[in-house]
Amino acid sequence: MAESKAATTSTVQMDDGINLRAKVFGEDLKSTKPLLVALHGAPGLSTLAEPEAAFTFLSDIFRVLVFDARGSGGSDLTGPYTHDRWIKDIEILRKWAGAEKFILAGGSYGGFIALDYAVLHGDKLLGLILRDTWANGVLGMMTALGNILTDDRLHVDVARQIRLWSGNLRDDKDFEEAIAEIIPIYAPPEEHLLKTSAKDNDESKAFEGMDERAAFNSATQNAAFSVNVPRFDVRQQLKNIKAPTLVIVGRHDYVTPVEFSQEIANGIPRSRLEIFEHSGHNPASDETEKYRQVILDFLRTEVI
């Protein structure tokens, strides 16, 4: 994990009174640097720690805004937990940060939100960065579950995994146990671990955004996967996304496999696909040096 630079931490109130925890790296809100907003994945579990680790290396060039989505981390655990509401929260944060246009980044579930935002508010985007995500919820969800149930590294409770991926968890403890038994699938196979990043790939860190602040909120996960994901399908809208787009994926990602990123890159006109040959679900930790170079090259050639 990259060492975080100094940040301004704020509590930002949304229009419905809900408070979100946000951090801004790269000077204060009055800075003239362009804004990059990075979304975390795993609703109800992941926190701003994930995008903080992945994007704060850019804070010399950008103001980097990361936040806990409502229902996750240090933000209020109050719904609705819908894509429309999460997108509206991004819009409020954009205005709070004083940016007319910005770069949006999202990984895994954060990529779903980023894609939906790009479809609805593409005129606000200077650029789009998508990491290990998919464009169709039902197909993606069923593929992930199928890979989990057939992975020799895992020994799972099948019924519990079905509850997890269909959004029917019994409680927060059920959520915690379901995640604990699938952590190894998020990392690349052992023979592909790079020595420079192996410290970030032990089982306690393989899951994105899991740190000492992680807390399990099954209500957020249940809403996301019982209501939002089955309705999520932007495949026919990809051609309408005009912002320059970088699509990143790990070759050994069995949750959001390479073919889904290829589909996204093929659909978005101004897109570039980068496959990380030694990565699982999170190239930012699996191949940190290459990941940073790819991000910088994209931003310098397509955005800045």
Automatic annotation (TrEMBL):
The keyword Hydrolase applies. It comes from the Eukaryota. Gene3D superfamilies: alpha/beta hydrolase (3.40.50.1820). Residues 34-284 form the AB hydrolase-1 domain. Keywords: Hydrolase. The keyword Hydrolase applies. One of its GO terms (molecular function) is peptidase activity. GO terms for cellular component: membrane. It holds the Pfam family Abhydrolase_1. One of its GO terms (biological process) is proteolysis. Belongs to the peptidase S33 family. This is Proline iminopeptidase. It comes from Lachnellula arida.
